[in-house]
Design a protein that fits this description.
six-stranded mixed sheet; 11 helices; Thymidylate Synthase, Chain A; single chain; 2 domains; Thymidylate_synthase; 317 residues; binds 5,10-methenyl-6,7,8-trihydrofolic acid; binds ligand LAUPNLSC; globular
């Protein structure tokens, strides 16, 4: 087993053996542990898991969306990235303007009721088309509130001033590498209620030693089967980009989690994945000298990614 897949399988295995059942906001139910840490040494390759297929395009376009300070799903949909649809859709169907079929609790109902699921799929398709084609509609209902991108790039301070945390942290790494204050936080308590979902990957810190840049993330809540493979690759990609920007080598991505859970309806999928062996990890090339603020999805190249097939599982909304 390669080291990357191994530490991830260790977490799955730990939750399978020690995780206790816990109800959760989505009504799905989870097996959960509190407090877990994984470490990925990026000199060994790029941690895109190989025991199931993980879609790099979804990860890279979401990260570019954060870096641009964008909070509207239109950008994601332009790349056919559908991972945030449900949370924008929820705001739409709960709004005064929505007068279509009742979509209460659509996430869970779509799993249980086939007739409802087909009505839901129709409504979702109409919603996506409108986000892509209708500017006013998209401004109003495509926006997820002041989520990651807004806080990273345009945190509003007490006097209304804009704070660009990402730009500041990169400047500080370059000019004062030994600082212990290289921090970006998406957790803005004053704005949580504007957000479609309070930040899960909430807070990260950089660390420089011997020409190597490391990053540690605190993730308050971790959907270990669907979210975590994305989060690992996303922060590793961010680390590679910031390291390049600062002319440093990429060191370790340290992933610290609070409530690390497997949803009850992912257990079968997890057990299937746990039976698989890994391939050698891929590597990642950035084929451009553009700054992190200008980089495009097309500038990334995943080299040598061999994986087992997808394992489908429903997302808890
Ligand atoms: N319950 C939950 N888990 C999450 O991981 C999560 C949320 N909610 N809400 C916000 C974002 C959205 N994220 C998501 C959403 C969907 C997938 C997902 O379904 N992944 C599939 C393939 C997706 C596709 O093909 O479009 C996978 O197999 O990885 C992953 C991460 C991560 N976050
Ligand atoms: O990047 C992400 C975003 C979300 N998640 C998961 C973690 C939880 O399962 C849900 C959020 O629900 P809360 O009730 O707000 O904790 O989304 C993730 O793993 N990674």
């Amino acid at each position: 087993m390669n080291n990357f897949d191994k530490v991830y399988h260790d977490l799955l295995g730990r939750i399978r053996s020690e995780g206790t059942f816990k109800d959760d906001r989505t009504g799905t139910g989870t097996y959960s542990v509190f407090g877990h840490q994984m470490r990925f040494d990026l000199s060994e390759g790029f941690p895109l898991l190989t025991t199931k297929k993980v879609l790099f395009k979804m990860i890279a376009t979401e990260l570019i969306w954060f870096i641009r300070g964008d909070t509207n799903i239109r950008f994601l949909l332009e790349y056919d990235n559908n991972i945030w649809n449900e949370w924008a859709f929820k705001k739409w169907v709960e709004s005064e303007e929505y007068d279509g079929p009742d979509m209460t609790d659509f996430g869970r109902r779509a799993l249980k009721d086939e007739d409802f699921n087909s009505i839901y799929q129709d409504e979702m398709k109409k919603f996506k088309d409108r986000i892509l084609t209708d500017d006013d509609f998209s401004r109003k209902y495509g926006d997820l509130g002041n989520v990651y991108g807004k806080q990273w790039r345009d945190w509003i301070g007490p006097d209304g001033e804009s704070i660009d945390q990402l730009k500041n942290v990169i400047e500080a790494i370059k000019t004062n590498p030994d600082s212990r204050r290289h921090i970006v936080t998406a957790w803005n308590p004053a704005e949580i209620d504007t957000m479609a979902l309070p930040p899960c990957h909430s807070f990260f810190q950089f660390y420089v030693k011997d020409g190597r840049l490391s990053l540690q993330l605190y993730q308050r809540s971790a959907d270990v089967f669907l979210g975590v493979p994305f989060n690992i690759a996303s922060y590793s990609l961010l680390l590679l980009m910031v390291a390049k920007e600062c002319s440093l080598e990429a060191g370790d991505f340290v992933h610290t989690m609070g409530d690390a859970h497997i949803y009850a309806n992912h257990i079968e999928a997890v057990d299937k994945q746990l039976e698989r062996n890994s391939f050698a990890p891929p590597s990642l090339k950035i084929n451009s000298d553009a700054s992190i603020f200008e980089i495009d999805y097309e500038d990334f190249e995943v080299v040598g990614y061999e994986s087992h097939p997808y394992i489908k599982a429903p997302i808890a909304v």
